[in-house]
Amino acid sequence: MITAALIFAALAAVLHVYIFVMESLTWTSPRTRAMFGTTAEEAETTKLLAFNQGFYNLFLAIVTAVGIVAICLGHTGVGAALVFAGVGSMLAAAAVLLASARDKARAAATQGAFPLIAVVLLAVALAA
């Protein structure tokens, strides 16, 4: 069960690296603007905010990845704490997105599905 939890945590981390790329590196590109539903003017105006937000997503992915590595190296307590911190924050961000913008429910579900599964599976694996 712990292996499944780590796979979903890794998928969540990869997704958040992709979000980092979109927000911090390609924010004003037509493809990214279409993904986020912004105009060229809105993207240019919010470029610095998105750049910063993208790094939050990258840091959550890094924390999660370090936790996965720690668990794989036998440091289950420290690793689990890091994985829970990383994917738990991702899940909380998805909940905030859903609560603040119901029209972004699909984005919130996409952002939060892997972290939710990782949290549940890791909690069950550690409780066993």
From TrEMBL:
Signal peptide: none annotated. The keyword NAD does not apply. The chain crosses the membrane at residues 54-73, 80-101, 107-127. Keywords: Membrane, Transmembrane, Transmembrane helix. InterPro entries: DUF1304. The keyword Mitochondrion does not apply. It comes from the Bacteria. Pfam families: DUF1304 (PF06993). This is Epimerase. The lineage of its organism: Bacteria, Bacillati, Actinomycetota, Actinomycetes, Mycobacteriales.
